Amino acid sequence: MKIEWAPLKVSPARRLQTFITALFTMAFFVLLFSSYLFVAASLFYGGLVLRSLILIYLVYMYVDHKRTHSIIDSNGWMLNRTNTLHRSYRNYFPVELVKTAELPPNRNYILASFPHGILGTGIGINMGVEISKWLELFPQIRPKVGTLDQHFLVPFMREALRAWGLVSVSKEALIHMLTKSNDPKHADNRDGFTSNAVAILVGGAQEAMDSHPGQYTLTLKSRKGFVKMAIRTGSSIVPSFSFGEVDIFDQVANPPDSLLRRVQSVVKKLTGVAPLIPVGRGFFNYTFGFLPQRRRIVQVVGSPIDVVRSAEPDAAYVDKIHGQVMEALEKMFDQYKEQYIPQSKNTKLVIQ
């Protein structure tokens, strides 16, 4: 294998971008394991005071999650969601945000977001850790990113996720977020915002297993839960497509009939998370490593699809709205692929 080395003479700004991206990437890959390891080590080897503090925290975490679903209703501390270091992370790729339609702040939204990629980096930056561009384009709308409910029962990791604007995709948590009042005078809106937008990476771990550079394979045909949630809460669905998301990481080949894919599928069924083996670049080479490649990611936010609210969604109506979402994504892909995908002539969108 021929190694492509990175140039030695690189500007300090780019070095900082690489360093910050390395920190975020390591956090995403090891935070879960390291959190459990720290708690286990503290309980086994810590003194009485440390053990007591850990136990108190674990009880608090469980009770708080049951009571509030671990949700921070506001945008939280803005220092955690936009700052110079987080902007360096954005600029590493860079990650961009494109507005194609108005989103009135008099209702709540589900952003049906595709593709997942390995980490969902574009969504994670634009609506999670660096929201300055979102607030510029969509004022008065709080951006949130949905993730698995069990992540909020991981000690310490949950605090980082909450600080970065992530929320659980459990039924209870989504209903809480998407039925919030849009009245500017309501007590919940004292922060000056009147709307919530929750991004859901609909394809989830299944779609992540199909993520390879240049391949836009979406898992959507059988995913209708987000449509039912939108109808139950009266939230508009906004199709969102992140061009370039699949290009920042490759992964070890895992065709559907391979042993690796079978193992990944079993683990995903048991835990909700697929054990991917990503292939990126290193600090000083472009051939292998755990860092994502410097590839442009452009999240295009489409037009809202309004729904009629109903506590018991009709199956035919769910299928109708689901079809509109698929059609909107196909049109969005065809409209913008030449603009945002290099050498896009042979790039196709596959929805399965």
Automatic annotation (TrEMBL):
It comes from the Eukaryota. GO terms for biological process: triglyceride biosynthetic process. One of its GO terms (cellular component) is endoplasmic reticulum membrane. It is found in: Endoplasmic reticulum membrane. The keyword Metal-binding does not apply. Belongs to the diacylglycerol acyltransferase family. This is Acyltransferase. It comes from Drosophila madeirensis (Fruit fly).
